[in-house]
């Protein structure tokens, strides 16, 4: 889902996501947000 939003619920306080990259090199930015918590961002660099 390019540039989209996806909602996931926690299980025992943890969340698992599976990311599939394209055939192009670049960056994947994953942002996690929750009520009463600061957002967390993970940037994953991909290469071909």
Short description:
The chain is mostly beta strands. It has strands at 26-34, 37-46.
Q: Could you explain the architecture of this structure?
A:
- The protein is mainly β and 48 residues long.
- The protein has a two-stranded antiparallel sheet with strand order 1-2.
- 0% of the residues lie in helices and 40% in strands.
- The chain has one domain (1-48).
- The two termini are 20 Å apart.
- The model has no long low-confidence stretch (mean pLDDT 84).
- 0% of the residues are buried.
- β1 (26-34) and β2 form a beta hairpin.
- It has strands at 26-34, 37-46.
- The chain is built from no helices and 2 strands.
Major sheet size, sense and barrel closure = 2 strands, antiparallel
> In terms of per-residue confidence, which ranges show pLDDT below 50 for 5 or more consecutive residues?
none
Helix content class: under 10%
End-to-end separation: 20 Å
Compressed to H and E, one letter per element, the order equals EE
Helix count from the secondary structure assignment = 0
Q: Can you count the beta strands?
A: 2
């Amino acid at each position: 889902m390019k540039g989209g939003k996806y909602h996931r619920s926690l299980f025992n306080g943890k969340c698992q996501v599976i990311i599939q990259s394209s055939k192009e090199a670049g960056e994947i930015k994953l942002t996690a947000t929750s009520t009463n918590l600061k957002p967390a961002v993970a940037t994953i660099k991909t290469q071909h």
